[in-house]
Write a structure and sequence with these properties.
Helix content is about 35%, strand content about 15%. By secondary structure, the protein is an alpha/beta fold. Helix 2 packs parallel to helix 9 and helix 11 packs across helix 13 (about 370-380). The protein is globular and about 75 Å long.
C-alpha cells in the first residue's frame, strides 16, 4: 500500500517548520543519504564525448549547491534560487540585471554596504540611484523617472526597523513595469515571503539568520519567474561568485533549525524591546513588535535598535557588556551588539545618517537564543552609567 502523500507530494510537508527541517533530505536518491553529501570537486568526469552526467564544472552547477538552491526556491515559492559567496555578491548579481543609464530607487534606511556598492562602485558604470522612504508610497512615486527600472527595499529596514508594505509597492511597480526587489534578510522565508506579495526578486544575506551560526558567508537570490531565474543564472555562471560546496552544506544544515532559532530569538527580542522601552536611560526603541505587525509578516523578527542620551552612554554600554558580544553582523545564535554609526553604516553620508537617526547614540541589537534573564541582566548591568 502506497504511503499517504502530505504537503507538496515531495515529502517536504505543508508547514514551514517541517519544510525547513526536510531541506535536502530526499535529494540524494542514489544512496538515500539524509544529509546531502558535500561534493568537494571543481570538475566532473564526462562519460563520453558529447555526454554529461548533468554536472560539468562546479561554477556552473554542483549537487550540494543545487540541493540548497532547490530548498530555498521551495521555501520562498520562487521559480529558482541561486546561492552566492556573500550577501553583497547576491546584491551585485541583481544589479547586473540592469543596464547603463538605468535608474533604481532604493529605500533610504538600508545596509551601509549597499550604499557603498551603488555610490562608490556602480555609479562608475552608469547606474543611477535615488534613496527614498519606501514606507511612503508617494515618495516612491515622486522618485520615478522615465529611465527608472526597479525599486529595492528592505523591510524591516536596517537599522531603524521601519516596515514597508510590499504588496503596495509591488502593485505600484507592476503598473509601471518596474522590478520589485526585496531584501528579506531580517525576516527570512519563515516569517515573510515577499514573492507572495508581488515582489519579483528576493535577496538574502544568508550569512545571517538562514545560516544562523556566524560561521559562513553566503548570499541568496530567489526569482519569481522562469525568465528572471534564467537571467540570474546567466549572471551567476558568467561572473562566478558561487557558494562553495562546503558552505552550501553548512547553509543547508542551518536551514533545518531556522524555525526553532527564530522562535526563540523573536521571543527574546519581544521581551527585551518591552523592557528597554521603560528604562530611563533609553530614549527610543525601534522594534516592529512594539507596534502592530503588518499582515505581510508572521512575526516582528529578532532585531531591534535603541538610542541613548549621548554618545558616551552608548560607548559605555558597549564596554560594560559581558554576555552580549560587540561585533558586526546579525542573525546568529549569539546575541550581538553593533554600533551602526561607526560600523555597518559608516559609509552612509553623514547628513543622511543624522536625518534617519543613525547617530552616535544608536545601538543595534541582534538578539540570540540565550536565556532571556541572562540577556536582560547583561543589559541592566551595562545601562548602569
Amino acid at each position: 500500500m502506497a504511503d499517504k502523500v502530505f504537503g507538496d507530494g515531495k515529502g517536504r510537508g505543508k508547514e514551514m517548520a517541517t519544510r525547513l527541517v526536510q531541506s535536502g533530505v530526499r535529494f540524494d536518491t542514489a544512496t538515500g543519504a539524509v544529509s546531502v553529501p558535500i561534493y568537494q570537486t571543481a570538475t566532473f568526469r564526462h562519460p563520453a564525448p558529447g555526454e554529461t552526467t548533468g554536472y560539468d564544472y562546479t561554477r556552473t552547477g554542483n549537487p550540494t549547491r543545487q540541493a540548497l538552491e532547490e530548498a530555498l526556491a521551495d521555501l520562498d515559492g520562487g521559480a529558482g534560487a541561486f546561492a552566492f559567496s556573500s550577501g553583497m555578491a547576491a546584491i551585485m548579481a541583481v544589479m547586473l540585471l540592469f543596464e547603463t543609464g538605468d535608474h533604481i530607487i532604493f529605500g533610504e534606511d538600508l545596509y551601509g554596504g549597499t550604499y557603498r556598492l551603488m555610490d562608490w562602485i556602480l555609479v562608475k558604470f552608469g547606474l543611477h540611484v535615488s534613496y527614498v522612504d519606501t514606507t511612503d508610497l508617494g515618495a516612491v512615486a515622486a522618485a520615478v523617472r522615465p529611465e527608472t527600472r526597479g525599486v529595492v527595499l528592505e523591510t524591516p529596514s536596517n537599522p531603524m526597523l521601519k516596515t514597508t508594505d510590499i504588496a503596495a509597492v509591488a502593485a505600484f511597480c507592476k503598473e509601471r513595469r518596474l522590478l520589485t526587489i526585496v531584501d528579506n534578510t531580517l525576516m527570512t522565508p519563515y516569517l515573510q515571503r515577499p514573492l507572495e506579495h508581488g515582489a519579483d526578486l528576493v535577496v538574502y544575506s544568508a550569512t545571517k539568520y538562514l545560516g544562523g551560526h556566524n560561521d559562513l558567508l553566503a548570499g541568496i537570490v530567489v526569482a519569481a519567474t522562469d525568465k528572471l531565474a534564467q537571467d540570474v543564472a546567466l549572471v551567476q555562471n558568467g561572473t562566478g561568485p558561487v557558494l562553495a560546496p562546503h558552505d552550501s552544506w553548512l547553509l543547508l544544515r542551518g536551514l533545518k533549525t531556522l524555525s526553532i532559532r527564530m522562535d526563540r530569538q523573536q521571543e527574546n527580542a519581544q521581551r527585551l524591546a518591552k523592557w528597554l522601552s521603560i528604562q530611563p536611560q533609553v530614549l527610543q526603541v525601534n522594534y516592529p513588535g512594539l507596534d502592530q505587525v503588518h499582515v505581510q509578516a508572521a512575526g516582528p523578527g529578532a532585531m531591534l535598535s535603541f538610542s541613548l542620551k549621548d554618545a558616551q552612554a552608548a560607548k559605555s554600554v558597549i564596554q560594560r557588556l559581558q554576555i552580549i558580544t560587540y561585533a558586526e553582523s546579525l542573525g546568529g545564535v549569539e546575541s550581538l551588539l553593533t554600533y551602526p554609526y561607526l560600523q555597518t553604516h559608516a559609509d552612509v553620508p553623514e547628513e543622511t545618517r543624522e536625518r534617519l537617526g543613525i547617530n552616535d547614540r544608536l545601538l543595534r541589537l541582534s538578539v540570540g537564543i540565550e536565556h532571556y534573564e541572562d540577556l536582560r541582566a547583561d543589559l541592566e548591568h551595562a545601562l548602569r552609567f
